[in-house]
């Protein structure tokens, strides 16, 4: 199949998907499956492999995020029901004021994003976002958009994450320089993202019924029920949120600090994985927020069980997004796009950025876009200096930051948790990630010009 036809099919598939979701009001899960099937048929994937490809894409993604989303939702439900998120939010708001609280949480999200995967970190901070939203009586986008933006920035740009680390290996980039320059550029990119999100929040967006129900659950100050224990302290809630983050960080560090076959190394490898870290935090929350404060086992079961239906929609839609991305990869759309851009003979830095950005838009995964771009540029950087390799790698990484849209599982996680419709998600999250990606590329190219 010709390159032009493959690209036309990919473009048509995204248009059809948007029409189904926005105009026809088809549920995104169903719409993604329909479009995945249409693309598989149109691009000639063998009939016996169509469902295998769709299930592989969905199963591969859900294997990574389903447990995390459910455990994160349960942890959030316990923190929410105890009044802990609001307690922490009130403490911060009184100390800093709302404006400085948004900036402080955005900085915290930047630090959190360095060791923790984007989806994991975002799910961990969702109870905080809801808690601050209720206290400040503002849209969750005020806190959620800038926090998600900076977390995704460090996820793609720093070699503590698989995309940048693997790209450094493919292009033989110095990891230390990549970390230092990646951090130096990510800071102003995060600041730009903060102000872009702030500008976006001047407009009102319609939130989903599910999120509105979550935000309406807050009780007025001083209106606690009779015989109900006082909300837990702000430090207790902060500790419960920090525990999984700390365990994940220690698990990451243990690979380089401890022998892999030692008992300590094995223990840290297990408890440092995101699902186990969240499971430990959930157990601590059940004890500290529930049992110790007089909750019965039945109440704990009810609260954790109630969190599952709400997370099911996020899981299914994200999984269907993974299926769509897998079909696009298997159909050869990504390779066709890469070959098209390669023939344009652009300078190295813009070529890396544009190629990665186009691959990100076409198949959804930032990591796949970064790795594919790095593989295509291997021969092009053969005569480049160490610093030039670092900058080419970063340009590819920032390309993977932009154009997060309907074929990206992260798009669905962010928009569903923040209560955005698909149309508003494209106007906010997609625009935000793209502007941050372009900013990162512009700064990288500026450094290239200076060196």
From TrEMBL:
Q: Which UniProt keywords apply?
A: Membrane, Transmembrane, Transmembrane helix
Note whether Transferase occurs among the keywords. Answer: no
Q: Which residues cross the membrane?
A: 6-22, 29-47, 59-81, 102-130, 177-197, 234-258, 270-291, 303-324, 366-384, 390-414, 426-448
Q: Does the keyword Flavoprotein apply?
A: no
Q: Which residues form the signal peptide?
A: none
What InterPro entries is this protein classified in? Glcn_transporter (IPR003474)
Q: Which PANTHER family match?
A: GNT FAMILY GLUCONATE TRANSPORTER, INNER MEMBRANE PERMEASE YGBN
Name under which the protein is recorded: GntP family transporter
């Amino acid at each position: 199949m010709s390159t032009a036809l493959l690209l036309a099919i990919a473009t048509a598939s995204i248009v059809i998907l948007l029409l189904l979701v926005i105009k026809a009001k088809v549920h995104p899960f169903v719409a993604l499956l329909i479009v995945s099937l249409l693309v598989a048929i149109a691009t000639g994937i063998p009939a016996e492999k169509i469902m295998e490809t769709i299930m592989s894409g969905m199963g591969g993604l859900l294997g990574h995020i389903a447990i995390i989303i459910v455990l994160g939702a349960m942890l959030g439900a316990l923190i929410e029901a105890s009044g802990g998120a609001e307690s922490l939010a009130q403490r911060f708001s009184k100390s800093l004021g709302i404006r400085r609280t948004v900036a402080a949480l955005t900085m915290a999200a930047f630090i959190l994003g360095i060791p923790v995967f984007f989806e994991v970190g975002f799910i961990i901070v969702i109870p905080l976002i809801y808690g601050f939203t209720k206290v400040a009586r503002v849209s969750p986008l005020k806190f959620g958009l800038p926090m998600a933006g900076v977390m995704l920035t460090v996820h793609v740009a720093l070699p503590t994450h698989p995309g940048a680390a693997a790209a450094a290996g493919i292009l033989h980039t110095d990891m230390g320089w990549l970390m230092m320059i990646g951090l130096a550029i990510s800071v102003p990119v995060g600041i730009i993202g903060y102000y872009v999100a702030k500008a976006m929040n001047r407009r009102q967006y319609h939130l989903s019924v599910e999120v509105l129900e979550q935000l309406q659950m807050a009780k007025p100050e001083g209106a606690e029920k009779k015989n109900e224990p006082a909300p837990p302290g702000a430090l207790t809630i902060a500790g419960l949120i920090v525990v999984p983050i700390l365990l994940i960080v220690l698990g990451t560090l243990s690979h380089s600090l401890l022998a892999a076959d030692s008992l300590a190394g094995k223990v840290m490898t297990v408890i440092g994985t995101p699902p186990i870290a969240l499971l430990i935090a959930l157990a601590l929350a059940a004890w500290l927020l529930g049992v110790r404060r007089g909750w019965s086992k039945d109440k704990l079961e009810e609260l954790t069980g109630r969190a599952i239906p709400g997370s099911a929609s996020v899981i299914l839609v994200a999984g269907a997004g993974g299926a769509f991305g897998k079909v696009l990869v298997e159909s050869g759309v990504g390779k066709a796009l890469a070959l098209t851009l390669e023939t344009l003979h652009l300078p190295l830095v813009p070529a890396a950025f544009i190629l990665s950005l186009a691959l990100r838009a076409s198949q959804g995964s930032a990591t796949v876009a970064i790795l594919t771009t790095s593989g295509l540029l291997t021969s092009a950087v053969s005569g480049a200096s160490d610093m030039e390799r670092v900058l080419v790698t970063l340009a590819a990484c920032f390309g993977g930051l932009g154009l997060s849209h309907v074929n990206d599982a992260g798009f669905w996680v962010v928009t569903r948790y923040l209560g955005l419709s698909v149309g508003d998600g494209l106007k906010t999250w997609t625009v935000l990630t793209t502007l941050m990606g372009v900013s990162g590329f512009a700064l990288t190219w500026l450094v290239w010009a200076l060196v």
